[in-house]
Amino acid sequence: MTQLDSFATLDFDRARRCGFPEVVFGLGKTPEQVAAIASKLIEVHEVVLITRVTHAHATALKELQSDASFVENCGILYIDRRSEDVRISGTTCREILASSKGQGKVVVCCAGTTDLPVAEEAAITACIMGSHVNLIADVGVAGVHRILNHQELVQSARVLIVVAGMEGALPSLVAGLVDVPIIAVPTSVGYGASFGGIAALLAMLNSCAGGVSVVNIDNGFGAGQIAHRINAPRWLDLRYN
Amino acid sequence: MTQLDSFATLDFDRARRCGFPEVVFGLGKTPEQVAAIASKLIEVHEVVLITRVTHAHATALKELQSDASFVENCGILYIDRRSEDVRISGTTCREILASSKGQGKVVVCCAGTTDLPVAEEAAITACIMGSHVNLIADVGVAGVHRILNHQELVQSARVLIVVAGMEGALPSLVAGLVDVPIIAVPTSVGYGASFGGIAALLAMLNSCAGGVSVVNIDNGFGAGQIAHRINAPRWLDLRYN
Amino acid sequence: MTQLDSFATLDFDRARRCGFPEVVFGLGKTPEQVAAIASKLIEVHEVVLITRVTHAHATALKELQSDASFVENCGILYIDRRSEDVRISGTTCREILASSKGQGKVVVCCAGTTDLPVAEEAAITACIMGSHVNLIADVGVAGVHRILNHQELVQSARVLIVVAGMEGALPSLVAGLVDVPIIAVPTSVGYGASFGGIAALLAMLNSCAGGVSVVNIDNGFGAGQIAHRINAPRWLDLRYN
Amino acid sequence: MTQLDSFATLDFDRARRCGFPEVVFGLGKTPEQVAAIASKLIEVHEVVLITRVTHAHATALKELQSDASFVENCGILYIDRRSEDVRISGTTCREILASSKGQGKVVVCCAGTTDLPVAEEAAITACIMGSHVNLIADVGVAGVHRILNHQELVQSARVLIVVAGMEGALPSLVAGLVDVPIIAVPTSVGYGASFGGIAALLAMLNSCAGGVSVVNIDNGFGAGQIAHRINAPRWLDLRYN
Amino acid sequence: MTQLDSFATLDFDRARRCGFPEVVFGLGKTPEQVAAIASKLIEVHEVVLITRVTHAHATALKELQSDASFVENCGILYIDRRSEDVRISGTTCREILASSKGQGKVVVCCAGTTDLPVAEEAAITACIMGSHVNLIADVGVAGVHRILNHQELVQSARVLIVVAGMEGALPSLVAGLVDVPIIAVPTSVGYGASFGGIAALLAMLNSCAGGVSVVNIDNGFGAGQIAHRINAPRWLDLRYN
Amino acid sequence: MTQLDSFATLDFDRARRCGFPEVVFGLGKTPEQVAAIASKLIEVHEVVLITRVTHAHATALKELQSDASFVENCGILYIDRRSEDVRISGTTCREILASSKGQGKVVVCCAGTTDLPVAEEAAITACIMGSHVNLIADVGVAGVHRILNHQELVQSARVLIVVAGMEGALPSLVAGLVDVPIIAVPTSVGYGASFGGIAALLAMLNSCAGGVSVVNIDNGFGAGQIAHRINAPRWLDLRYN
Amino acid sequence: MTQLDSFATLDFDRARRCGFPEVVFGLGKTPEQVAAIASKLIEVHEVVLITRVTHAHATALKELQSDASFVENCGILYIDRRSEDVRISGTTCREILASSKGQGKVVVCCAGTTDLPVAEEAAITACIMGSHVNLIADVGVAGVHRILNHQELVQSARVLIVVAGMEGALPSLVAGLVDVPIIAVPTSVGYGASFGGIAALLAMLNSCAGGVSVVNIDNGFGAGQIAHRINAPRWLDLRYN
Amino acid sequence: MTQLDSFATLDFDRARRCGFPEVVFGLGKTPEQVAAIASKLIEVHEVVLITRVTHAHATALKELQSDASFVENCGILYIDRRSEDVRISGTTCREILASSKGQGKVVVCCAGTTDLPVAEEAAITACIMGSHVNLIADVGVAGVHRILNHQELVQSARVLIVVAGMEGALPSLVAGLVDVPIIAVPTSVGYGASFGGIAALLAMLNSCAGGVSVVNIDNGFGAGQIAHRINAPRWLDLRYN
């Protein structure tokens, strides 16, 4: 099956069905494949999002599409040609969140700085899909005053994404402060008995606090997408957001 | 520590903080403990929900509170003394869902009849919290036409709860049909290499479809609570529902 | 090997070597075996402690030693014939802790009421060995204000025992509040992906907070013994405690 | 043991016993070893199949046997000197399947494009052994219409091979559409809680649909061989195929 | 949901789609449920098969359908009202296999006598679906002469089912003797490190011999169904069998 | 988030709360990050400790802080500008322990020479925090006379750290010789069924000897910190040490 | 298959091939089955050994064979009608070992009293097969002086069986004292993270001491059989023993 | 700790205690360390054995000891300066086994050619310790005639080492042919659900055949050492061998 053939499988219809064009999962794809697929998608859609890529993929795509942006810290690559009132821009998470005119409020919290790439993947995903996003870093449970200092912001969210590796305790703590849904994202951060994220995953599945559901280890993208759908549901009259 | 002491730990304040009084997890508590705790709660709140109990617990509570209702198939016990426009009634899932005047729409799907108790726990939980709920049973992936026959109802939901044991494939299938959040609930239904629900849990965490987050094995209550929070968020002007 | 033979293996010398007579692990022993062993030990020592027993064991021992006391909630059986200034008494954890004239301070925290039996096993063990012990129940991370309300007591401890099932997050939270050692005890409380305490065990081993070491699932006794050794070390001039 | 010695262990008799000469598993063998073994086999047999090799192995063999063909995408190397009515040719899966004059019908389905190498290994294996094979790619359960669009082809198969990673749900879906045997092949595609293919393997072993049996993770070759034996059994009068 | 409701989910159409009416999995169903479901099915079909039931289920069904037969050793219950040329009868595996006029040949081998219930479930399933079945018991690998003594019968099969617990080695041994497909069934027979069948399951998935695919632990029914489909495929002109 | 931003998260207040400045976990940080963070910390504190770093990190830091010391064998980097009566110095574990004027006594034992890096991380951590530390290497259980030869030193400790990989048996052996707390550290040393330290971890959690608590696999730092807190508690009048 | 049929599978020839008649594994067999099989075997052989049975099995056999003996503590049942110079007798392990005239020396050590049943199964097995056996109980590693007190006996053995649960450390300790083979038997004794014997099993497989091989969890019989074959090999001129 | 220090831990006394000087486990040691340790040992002993090393280690040692020999295929390095009647020589397994004047008979069997390195490690270990060794390669269970062709040799052994990866079935097969002890060695050969040797390890622990004990995954050395101790026990009058 040649590379061209594989374009046949792109799901051009997804934007209509699901509200955002198909997102490309870059892991395991070559720079050439990513560049070709993204170029094909941008012909049809105004915005393209690619996750889990490296500098090499970014270079390959920029040669074809000079307006592609690469967020190195979390391996996100995107092209945004939408109208200005929804377009995002920037090459760091901070810049992108600042550029957003998104609606509602998604708050992303993460426990340690090593969890940041996953948290940023989640934040940028929700942001590019149209949510207003705030990111609070380094609020691990070992210093409980840190999350409490952000309590007002936390409680203003319509949905929270909580990212943590190691013992994965942060979602339970945060869930006790709010009554909105929490998307918990275990990360593979840790060593020894963290078993590549299993410890955090199990902790989150067993959260004693209400409102917590869980996605796969390191799946920042999935969490961002779900959070956006909760924050800005399509069934809602948008004037109210 | 005497039994009375343990009342001190009841969280009477939760209704204000989280929108619904503390729910009692009955597993591992004696009938007497459950009856005492529930009676204490109903003094303060208008509605009390207890999950994972048996006939013996129901009998013990009914002696103290004659208006308690027991849903045997899924082990739910409740007392509802709210005003009529939100009050539910009945002792089967069907009756309860029919009695509801809830808002929005939560749809609960389950794969096999053995998954029904978990699905009903989810449905009744969301319903008693104030959501309008529909339950679709026996739509496993091995007969794909079954879920497709319900496509319209599925697509009318603001959030779906998908319950499945064994290979846990149903959430991926459903997620491909909608663009709203899916709460996936693995069940311990199965034998051999289902490992008490691990097979279904792993499948759901690895769902290739967007929008799926997961709760603990057999955690119908948790799924129902999250779904209600997504379906009828407190930040939303309720007139619009 | 007859039952009498097995007495030969009792380690009568342990009190001198380790500061407290050998403790009997009751699980898997018959009431008769426990009664016989305990009676043999009390001939030589002034105090005997037996863990993990049921009502039947207590009855069997009381027939031989009428001053034996049974703490039903956590399955502890003991005989204390020491001089009054160290002797404990009572058949509930509360009574025993109140009767103690122990030194220093051990604080035991537990997350949920179902964790109480393990927490009480730990508290009574440390108490009978000679420590002053406080027990704080129901301070799970989902209501962070609860542990913060006890902050002064927590910070007055020389060592803490933190008991938790499910996601096992409490030790990390507590460890962030103090600079003394924390003994974390995972419990088998939970269902589904708690895997009989594995989730809590892994979380505790991966604690991001300093000062946390871990014992086996449900091993309240072990935690109590270690805590006592830290709180009242034999190398310390006792006048200073 | 010298390299020459190891030829003694080649099973030259297998073609007579099992209908096709011994297939060489290339993983862990050096290019030189593969080239030597394949050259030894082609002296005795008209066709040689080698799986799991890289470009280096292909180069080494082509130096000795210039008519060797390498299918890079799935790491298959083969020499086919059989008579023209059964001989296959080509260096892509598509070419090989097109060149075949095989009998009956084997249909290979795979969920995602990253599953393609395993699916191609299965397809080429069945094809070179003498089956007519069709390959349907990218029909994952998240877009159920995709497999339904191929329903006629799926139902024309005598046996199906269904290849999927991640949640491994596709075999259950396909099995509900047909009444012929399904060989399910879990792949190691995925991350986090896919655990290198365990999630897909468990899902397939727990399939709620009838007719599904499973081979090892990534074992496309094994699936292809079994499918051929089901599609074109030696006990069947071949005129009827 | 009342019991009557659940009839709505019976798949009466399966016989046409898949060649045999829906089979009832009895595990977890009450005697009353099984009796009711089977009675409903036999109104529409000429033959009904129920697996994993106990004496109590058999008694309940016989009260409603006096011609139901129960095979106690493997927990199979069936009603066969087909015409005499395909009808089976008897209450032991031996009697049933002897009563069959099935076509082709399925051979079932099992390693130890404790594996017999699973082997019989497989044999009776294939037999009632229309295959001619032979069962060879107690041919474990520790006495290799035993299976070799049956070599002629083994080699006459169109498909083999090989059932084994503990180390699960028998499928590899048998697969070396034939060139037809092998369905391997791991059983939960064993103790300690057999982990309820995991050891046998892993061994079978890793079989070094060609042609082996695997079903779930103790899934004799699944193996029998697959074997029948391979032995007597619907695409085959039946005169040739 | 720029690198400078991440300084905001450094916990400058920890020295006051917990008795020693925040320790930097180097694994996963770049040389530049480590150098920048350590330089920032040394502005505020008199001593900085960094664990799990390589030669490259050491070089980067030394360019900024020429008095940084690197202990290559266990990957520890530190700057110590405290007054001479507590300052340590040296670039091997031996030198550092010899330079210490610490109080009390911590004894670190390890089973094999491959366990030495973890043992040294523990020893240096406790030493730099202010404990007097002795390290006994190569006293594995397979030569029991070796640990017995050190019995006097072992029994003079206020707390022991016991480091072992493979079967992890040493803590049980040592715990039988003393009545002070044992911190057991499993290491990832081993192969095959050691599963990266799981075998040792499980053995230690199941120790039949009293007084043993456990930290994460390879977590020498954690063990050293806990041991120091037990050996030199802040509640103790320091004149007595 | 009737019960009589299953006799056909008894391996009457094993005594000639393997030096001792087939041993019956009682677990999962009914009292009637065990009584029938043993009676059949004793017709042909002079000695019959049955393991893993309960009182009920013993009663059933004694009704048929009044000279059957039952060792309740380890669930062994045997009939010995050999000539007096090899015959054993007694109903406790102690009596049987004392009655033996076996050759060479097998020493069985076990860690705790709860490990005794497995140790006795091993000891009696080796003894009835013809070895001289000594059993040393309660020599766990937590009191190392205990095994050292038996050093002379330990070093006089030709082979040792070392039985231990929990952390499974004893085999490594013993292996350091001798240069003969050690058969290590993990037991399921323990709780929590012992995982039914997995902790001990892994520890033994990872023993740092030479000469240790391992059998399945609780497999005392297997260890006894292997030890006998090492202690009294058939290739050895028996006069020399 | 300097490198010289670590010599202090070499166990020079082991040769007297255990019959052969300490063997060096090379994995994780640098070429320089191995060369230094081996040179130190050869000063005291006449023979030195090092396992798990690479070409680099061999080169480093040969510079210091020109008579060192390296067996590349299995990573063994040795120096043999014993008297000619026991000395071995050669750089392949075949040469070494041929050069041996060892006593008794050890037979090593392995399933596949990829298992050869482990089998050779076992064979050379037993050989250098003084056993006569035969090695039979490529006798996997999938071609049962292969091991049966060697039946006479197999049955002449005093002890067998059976090496297998993947499904690990060979030990059970071989154990059924003999009545001497079998040392089973699982290898990490395989992929997918072989889990690095776990599948083979579990299969061997669950062997239904008598006489099989197991060592760690890939532990050829351990198996060789045990086999030698069984084949040529020190308690045996050596004239009889």
Write a structural description:
Eight copies of one chain form a homooctamer. Chain A is of the alpha/beta class and 241 residues long. Chain A is built from ten helices and nine strands. Chain A has helices at residues 14-18, 31-44, 55-64, 93-99, 116-129, 144-149, 151-155, 170-175, 198-205, 220-231; strands spanning 24-25, 47-51, 69-71, 76-80, 103-110, 131-136, 159-164, 182-186, 212-214. In chain A, α2 packs across α3 and α5 (116-129) runs parallel beside α10. The A-C interface holds A 111-112, 140-144, 148, 166-169, 172-173, 175-177, 190, 192-195, 198-200, 202-210 and C 111-112, 140-144, 148, 166-169, 172-173, 175-177, 190, 192-195, 198-200, 202-210.
List the helices and strands and how they pair.
The structure is a homooctamer of 241-residue chains.
Chain A: H1 14-18, E1 24-25, H2 31-44, E2 47-51, H3 55-64, E3 69-71, E4 76-80, H4 93-99, E5 103-110, H5 116-129, E6 131-136, H6 144-149, H7 151-155, E7 159-164, H8 170-175, E8 182-186, H9 198-205, E9 212-214, H10 220-231
Percentage of residues assigned to helices of chain A: 25-40%
SS strand fraction of chain A = 15-25%
- How would you describe the shape of chain A? globular
Strand order of the largest sheet of chain A: 6-5-7-8-9
Oligomer kind = homooctamer
Largest sheet of chain A: 5 strands, parallel
How many strand units of chain A?
Answer: 9
Order of helices and strands of chain A: HEHEHEEHEHEHHEHEHEH
Structural class assignment of chain A: alpha/beta
Task: Provide a count of the helices of chain A.
Answer: 10
Largest interface: A-C, 34 and 34 residues
Poorly predicted runs of 5 or more residues of chain A: 1-8
Q: What distance separates the N and C termini of chain A?
A: 46 Å
Radius of gyration of chain A, whole Å: 18 Å
Mean pLDDT of chain A: 90
